[in-house]
Amino acid sequence: MDSNKKVSYKLGYEETTFIGLLKISGFKSIFNFSMLYSLLLTAALGTLIFQKNYLFVYKLAENLSPILLGAAATIFGIVLAALAVSISLFHPSVLYSLLEVKLLHKYLFPFWKAVSMWGINILLNLLLIIIVIAELKLKYSIEVLFTLNFFLFTYSTLYTVRLTGEIIRLTLQRAQLKLQ
User: Fold this and answer.
1) Which residues neighbour 105 within 8 Å (Cβ) at sequence distance 6 or greater?
2) Cα gap 9→45, rounded to integer Å
């Protein structure tokens, strides 16, 4: 940004909240192919789970929840690192312009969404592990939680792959800029 240029855009609090960024990015950012594929895979798994007996689902949750917890926690950290790297790709002279036209908002929101989904996934896995260890036998609790967890894990994974594409696109676009 030119030091003589008067700053006319003022960032409001609403634009810095999750809901505010969601409004700017558009609700279509939630409903995409990642969501569709995740719903289809979850419907298939849900059909299988609800046809099996309780012991099958219990064993599935007992064996997979710790693995999914570790994977979710690892990917949570990787997404945060990717955010840091991608922010460093922005040239300081371009940041204000992106902020002014709200492109920066639209670029950063997917990271917040991905980290939120992975965080919720971590909590769901912890809850499943606690239910299994405590041997709580609430009607359909493990079936519903495991199915929800599978959906969120699948959606988060596919969404993170999509986010990787955004980072690659930004890197290629940044390489085209000839900035001092």
Assistant:
1) 15, 21, 24, 25, 99
2) 49
The single-letter DSSP state of residue 139 is T
| Residues 134, 145: Cα–Cα separation, whole Å | 15
DSSP string of 140-159, one letter each residue: THHHHHHHHHHHHHHHHHHH
For 14, 25, 76, 110, 140, the CA distances from 83, given in Å and listed in that order, are 21, 17, 11, 10, 38
- Tokens 């908002």, residue? 105
CA distance 164 to 88: 15
| DSSP label at residue 6 | P
- Regarding pTM above 0.90, the answer is no
Which tens digits make up the pLDDT trace of 38-67?
A: 999 999 988 888 787 778 888 888 999 999
Q: What is the chain's mean pLDDT, rounded?
A: 84
Token pair of 153, please?
């894990």
